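Sample intake sheet
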Amino acid sequence: MSTLEMRGITVERGGRPVVRDVSITVPAGEVTALLGPNGAGKSSLVLAVGGVLKPRPGSVRLDGAELAGRRPEKVRAAGIAIVPEGRRLLSDLTVDDNIRVATYALSRQDAAQGRERALELFPGLRDRLAVPARLLSGGEQQMVVLAQALVSRPQFILIDELSLGLAPVVVSRLVPVIRAIVGSGTGVLLIEQFATLALSLATGAHVMEGGLIRYSGTAAELRTRPDLLHSAYLLRGTAAAGIPEASPAVADPARTDPAG
């Protein structure tokens, strides 16, 4: 089975290290959760793996091939897709055009197959293909950026803040898609502040704070031992860790987009 291996990654931004000597292995066909508060360095790690930032030093290897320092299009062609935080779409283009833009490096056949696969995972987008991206709800925009990542049929996908700003009912529609992705053999690194959601999907888990990995182990252990998560967050408490007292589907109202 393929593995995505990050070893000793350090990333500097603005002249200071924001990711420090981070090592994570993401197996194929599993969700690996990466948790942590704002400013922990999670997004910088994703951008470094995706080729947007250069780790200095650090190694990103997929099936033995070194990808650290490669341009984003080379990383994507090697089988790694990233979904950055913020739902970055071409707002004046339609849903269909946004999806097709993501197929620019594929053959016509692969582009058609990838597009169809994405629409199978997000059937609600079929009726929205002619709608400009700016008119979509937050949930629909998240579906489009996920579709953009999936059209190339990546071996691994890194999703930064899947649930951010979305209503619980919208998040609940995305969960089966994540399960379908890993069911097809794709490995997922799921970056989340909302710990309960991520741990309900994940096999392995890591907690990052201050640019460092504070915990590496199983998601099951963190689900049953919240004290470990609290310790990894340097005793920031359950609210900072994103652990609600209610069910996993309940999000922080401050992060909710009522329109989905």
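Comment: The chain is about 35% helix and 25% strand. The first helix runs from residue 42 to 49.
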